[in-house]
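step 4 of 6: structure.
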Amino acid sequence: MRLLIARCTVDYDGRLTAHLPSAVRLIMVKADGCVAIHADGGAYKPLNWMNAPNRLIEHDDHWTVTNPKGEQLTITIEEVLSDLSEEMGVDPGLQKDGVEAHLQELLAANPESIGEGLRLVRREYPTDIGPVDLLCRDADGGAVAVEVKRRGEIDGVEQLTRYLDFLNRDPTLRPVRGVFVAQEIKPQAKVLATDRDIGWVVVDYNELRGIESNELRLF
Amino acid sequence: MKFRCEREAFERALGLAGRAVSGRGGALPVLSGVHLVLEGDTLRLTGSDLDLTISVELTVAGEQDGVAVLPAKLAADIVRAVADGKVEMTVDSEEAHLSAGRSEFSLRVIPADEFPQLPEPSADAVKIDATEFKDALRQVTPAASADDSRPILTGVLMAAEDDGLRLVATDSYRLSVRDLPGSTVLASDQSVLVPSRSLNELARVLGDDDDLTLRLGEHDATFEVGAVRVTTRLIEGDFPNYRGLIPSSQPNKLTVNREALLDAVRRVRLLAQESTPLRLIMKDGVLELVAVTQDVGQAQEAVDASFDGAELTVAFNPEYLLNGIEVTGGEEITLETVDELKPALLRRVGSDDYLYLLMPVRVS
């Protein structure tokens, strides 16, 4: 990771042209080639950025960053205030919430708790946009993509919709139906899931863990 | 649209219709509004979240017919806040103007043509005894589940039973059954599952002397009470087979004064905190109630009772027990039990119209 704080101007030439006038900015060059230019404000969004793969050429007074689409970022450096490079190593990735990860594990071990006749094909089944939590087959052999959340909200349904879009492009899997599983599911998420023909199942984490409640039930 | 009416009546109508309005409009923003239709001197106000629709008719001094959708909460807040007396409302295509006393309000309206076409109530109408039905709702609806993950249990089963109507609700921890003999509302063997939320709204508007009419459609039911119409979507699915849960005979029978037990439970449950149960120790001549919450304290009280059976201790969720005793009614009640893990049956002495079946809580 290289962090350069410099007074600079930035010109982007691609789908449109954009110009950042002279100011002090943070230029972030990541090990994979991503380049992001930040102002001293805002949570995470850079003023301008180029995703990897990129070709970065450093000239004396300016850098050019070019991507395979021909888009180009020209950073004209007027004054370097700080230049720091650090080897950060491989990131272990985002750890899911402990309960959510355990829930996924428990459901993988007991897919019938999601639906009768469901068999696990694979946990973290890869798609082009990230792994879907569980890929299963139902009693009729149909593929079922399962997204597991602790709290089921609209975002989770959207995420599963995207996975289904990609999975249904695979001729060895399609048709793939989706099931949204959570400890609790918001009414809006249920409505959206139902509207998209995605099933939803509320599961009891304690029950899956085999923790017996002291509450007896009539049925 | 232009009309004048009394503030108090308008406030009540807006409040009633507004109870069915969905919080943030959900999928249809127009549903965050209350729909107004003025024809002559009759103003109909309707709120709906598509599952529940409440419609109220109000007699006003109408000047110009029209249709409008007002933001429900804001309109209700304004009408509640203005001075008592006459309220005048004029609505054009974009704004509603309300004046009362020396107050003037203008508020943006929601396009009325976006308001969905709601189902018309069925033409087949049957009369229900409002007093009995309201009493039955008070007894039964609390036992329905509030957990949307099991939609069937959020409903109250209305079923034809012998020569009358039976209402049943259960959340799987307790079961509440009320018979209304002689109330031939449904066809023989017919049953419908009505969301308890809708019935609770109906109970709010139901007075003892009101005429109550039920119109049953294929997918919905409409209850009419005077100028108020409550339409609810019916829940589809099979209600659990509750009959098998009701024990035919139980060896232990406790008979106790209901008010005395109610007061004792209310006192002792103060020390049944953090989901700890309330223990009932049943002995000959006395019922002891005990609650112990670790690190907080304990409470106990004895209540005179007659007990027929072997000495027994059964623990219950205090809220469920209290609710059962409250709704069972009568001067004396019986609590019939098998053992500490089997369901207990609460009944009113001298009446078979109502029963409350309650599952105990397992204690070490």
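step 5 of 6: annotate
 - The mean pLDDT of chain B is 93.
 - Helices of chain B lie at 7-18, 72-81, 130-140, 196-205, 258-268, 318-328.
step 6 of 6: archive
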